[in-house]
Amino acid sequence: MLFSEEEYLEILGLLDKDDPNLEENAIALIKWAEKIKVGQSLLDLSLKGLLKIVMENGEPKFTATEEGQEIASEATNRAFEEIISNFEEE
């Protein structure tokens, strides 16, 4: 989930409850908000130097910088260790 449950409810609260297309518009609004959130996250990571942006046909393409790859590798290792630890505890 890109948002907390509370954030999803806040976003949905922006809709007109009397809208005859409420369900369809709710789905569209959530998809739009999630797309914006992902875009902001990519921009933030790029500004921090963790992603490199290359423009191709007017569209940004993202790749991890060396620092970004190191951080991702460390995070993956920590997550894997946690999974193994939880498995061993059972």
Write a structural description.
With 90 residues, this protein is an alpha+beta fold. It has a domain at 1-47. It has 3 helices and 2 strands. It has a two-stranded antiparallel sheet. A hairpin with a 2-residue loop joins strand 1 (51-56) and strand 2 (59-64). The mean pLDDT is 93.
| Radius of gyration of CA atoms, rounded to a whole number | 19 Å
Largest sheet: 2 strands, antiparallel
Straight-line distance between termini: 27 Å
Please, how many helices? Answer: 3
Percentage of residues assigned to helices: 55-70%
Strand order of the largest sheet: 1-2
Unreliable residue stretches = none
Helix and strand element order: HHEEH
Give me the count of strands: 2
Question: Given the helix and strand composition, which structural class is it?
Answer: alpha+beta
Query: What shape does the CA trace take?
Result: flat
Strand content bin: 5-15%
Give the rounded overall mean pLDDT.
93
Q: Which oligomerization state do the chains in this entry correspond to?
A: single chain
TL;DR?
It is built from three helices and two strands. The chain has 90 residues and is α+β, with helices and mostly antiparallel strands. It has a two-stranded antiparallel sheet with strand order 1-2.
From the structure above, extract its key features.
flat, 64% helix, 2 strands, 90 residues, two-stranded antiparallel sheet, alpha+beta
Layout of helices and strands:
Blueprint: H1 5-12, H2 22-47, E1 51-56, E2 59-64, H3 66-89
Antiparallel strand pairs: 1-2
